Amino acid sequence: MKATLGAWPERALAAALGALQTLAFVHTAAWPLPLATLAWLVWRLDRATPRQAAGLGWCYGTGWLCAGTWWLFISMYVYGHLPAVLAAAAVFALSGFLSLYLAAAGWAYAKLRRGDALDPLVLAALWLLAELARGVLFTGFPWVASGYAQVDSPLVALAPWVGVYGIGALGALVAAAGVKLLRQREWRPAAGALAVVVVASLVPARFTQPAGELRVTLLQTAVRQDEKFSAERMPEVLAWVAAALRQAAPGLAIAPETAVPLLPAQLDDFAPGYWQALREDAARPGRAVLVGLPLGDFQAGYTNSVAGLAGREVYRYDKRHLVPFGEFIPPGFRWFTAAMGIPLGDFARGVPNPPSFAALGQRIAPNICYEDLFGEELAARFADAATAPTVFANLSNIGWFGDSAAIPQHLNISRLRTLEFQLPMLRATNTGATAVVDHRGVVTAQLPPHQRGMLEAVVQGRAGVTPFAWWAARLGLWPLCGLALAVLVLRWRFRPKAGA
Fold it and tell me: H helices then E strands: how many in the chain?
């Protein structure tokens, strides 16, 4: 008798389990939960037809992404003033579209499985390709990629070797190998996966070395998104930012993304002499400042930028990986953005592989908001070890998403980045999480979210290049893609002959 895998109750269960496992992206001690729910999915895929497998994969993925990114609803409904039904439909449509990659992986697995010891590797390869597609195609949206749920698990020992996507693929291998062990008493895949994790955990993997200490002050402005561009509120916020930067202890002070929401030329309308005063204050000995603000003009285009002030020089970093709808409008979607009241814009993109901000004996590499999801792009800065960053600085404003899971999710994303590169991350944000994360992925200091304040800490810069940084700087994510394709070619090459 065939199992009724296409039945709606089972699809609903797949969606529910996909949603349930997103708890681990916030509460990282729950890291076994995604592995357990994935093991259930593999258990069902092992008996599914290709069509049924595609349906189960799509439902699991849609539940996963709806639960993991539901806070997008807040930006569209609360701040964009879309009708609630349309905002909810947009979140579902995005989740459903992105889950087509997982549906394709389920379909392909049902076609390629053979009931042998290679099946777990095939499942892991397809899982890896699906996650790479979601993270790269159409500018990419890798939020809640499966590897982020493992930031506190033994699997994270492989972060400096294979990055977040490699960790996700290994998690899929562990889940599939466990199913193979339980269902068929096939121990070889499970033993192989376990051996990889144990060896990675036991082999010393310190690829960076101390490169001096840096005293930092991180500002958290705590401005509601609907007040950020308010003419009544702006003078008070600008005054607080200037006072906080001036009062900061000697060292590096960082104000978050668009902490100054106006072009330097526009500032005199609200605070005469403001920009010049910031520059003069940062020019004092032993001081440096990073501040988020828009730059540019009508002719050259506008950018979401970070200005670095130290001495008399002005460093500039322009955001390169822009947010669809928020910072650029995809072709054919202007009607959608026109329906929202958010001040959207088509920003110009920054240059690839920008130089670091050299100050106070460190090479500080800024990135803005969700740019720190793209480890392969940050890795481009490590092509030359002599100029590689010693500290990351993330300047964010996720006030668009209120008091939601987006804040701890983003913090855990930053933690995974520090483990991939074995560098610290300084996070200065509008509403949270403003924090210092060391090169081991440990949060050493943090402000409560949604409270205005200044976080003072000392961070240790690090010099060196991890294996992940080395190969991703030169080849991007192609080695992972090639490895996954090699497994699928191996399966196709050694498939049983018809009638055998």
Answer: 16, 12
